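About this split. The held-out portion is used to measure sequence recovery: a designer receives only the structure tokens and must propose an amino acid at every position. Recovery is the fraction of positions where the proposal matches the reference. Here is one held-out target exactly as it appears in the evaluation file.
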């Protein structure tokens, strides 16, 4: 079975190449759909496949940049990208990313990069999963209360509305963002992007894992605009991050190219799927994906405390992360096909 493994010349490890293809295609679909690079799955996925954590981070960021470019172009055609908001957020993203990347180099020198990054992943994933499902539960409660009171259900109502409080901050300059249909102080997106950029540099993510929820809950973007604008940010931060990690010698270009070929195809499918699945449908699927990723990272940590369970935990983590990517991408693809078929049928009826 040696033919199923390929040597990565820079990292010096042999990798199961079909796993790279599954990650590339699947995360292309998922990234295009959720509006993020998918690094929240790819970085732990590459680490599970055998890459040292620093190489997993650098390689993921390199493949993410090209894939996000394709997805951003597709979302731009649908009017889902607020370029003005994205450009302002670049300020905080770039500065925050470099701060995070320098912290990773320091953690690698003292030999703590693996455990620290994995525990940070667990905490972050748990917080995001809670936020998503708390939002969904609160929205459903509002709908039930409206029905019980005999009122019409507000289809635009949201659960968590932190952005309404933050929009009361009137520190100049105040800027209007047309695609997102909101006005706020420029410092709000800058500070949010600095924090997400910092986490991106540490965790090897494009920042989309937290920037997409932040755009929705802290800045107040509609979900579909948050998806497209986040992809624009992922593209820019990914290009910068790829250059930064390549310069530091932590990017495995062979693996990045293998994944990018599949991701370029998958990104097209995921981007089109947002035309048929919107709002809370995207949020719920996103929350389920985060929970699955949380479990896979936890499985990878268990052998540090129970060495005898290494083999079974390693197999379970690999199956879970690859199975999660495959299942999510299949679900999104099926929904896209169903939506497109329904749209075609509707046009035929009108004709």
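Reference sequence for scoring:
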């Amino acid at each position: 079975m040696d033919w199923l493994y390929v040597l990565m010349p820079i990292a010096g490890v042999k990798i199961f190449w079909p796993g790279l293809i599954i990650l590339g295609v699947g995360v292309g679909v998922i990234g295009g759909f959720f509006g993020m690079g998918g690094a929240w799955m790819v970085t732990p996925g590459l680490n599970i496949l055998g890459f040292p954590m620093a190489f997993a981070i650098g390689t993921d960021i390199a493949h993410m940049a090209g894939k996000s470019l394709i997805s951003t172009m597709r979302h731009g055609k649908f009017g889902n990208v607020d370029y003005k908001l994205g450009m302002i957020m670049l300020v905080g993203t770039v500065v925050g990313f470099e701060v995070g990347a320098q912290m990773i180099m320091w953690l690698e020198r003292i030999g703590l990069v693996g455990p620290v990054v994995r525990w940070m992943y667990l905490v972050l994933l748990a917080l995001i999963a809670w936020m998503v499902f708390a939002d969904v539960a609160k929205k459903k409660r509002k709908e039930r209360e409206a029905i019980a009171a005999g009122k019409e259900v507000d289809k635009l109502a949201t659960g968590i509305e932190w952005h309404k409080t933050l929009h009361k901050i009137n520190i100049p300059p105040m800027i209007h963002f047309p695609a997102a249909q909101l006005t706020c102080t420029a410092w709000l997106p800058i500070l949010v992007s600095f924090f997400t950029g910092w986490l991106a540099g540490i965790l090897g993510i494009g920042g989309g894992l937290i920037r997409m929820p932040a755009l929705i809950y802290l800045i107040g973007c509609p979900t579909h605009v948050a998806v497209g604008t986040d992809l624009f940010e992922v593209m820019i931060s990914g290009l910068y991050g790829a250059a930064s990690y390549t310069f530091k010698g932590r990017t495995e270009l062979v693996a990045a190219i293998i994944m990018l070929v599949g991701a370029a195809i998958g990104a097209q499918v995921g981007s089109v799927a947002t035309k048929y699945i919107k709002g809370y449908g995207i949020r719920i699927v996103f929350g389920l994906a985060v929970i699955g990723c949380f479990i896979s990272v936890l499985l990878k940590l268990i052998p540090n405390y129970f060495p005898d369970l290494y083999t079974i935990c390693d197999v379970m983590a690999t199956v879970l992360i690859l199975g999660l990517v495959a299942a999510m991408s299949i679900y999104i693809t099926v929904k896209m096909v169903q939506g497109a078929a329904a749209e075609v049928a509707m046009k035929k009826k009108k004709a």
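Annotator remark: The CA atoms of residues 163 and 219 lie 5 Å apart.
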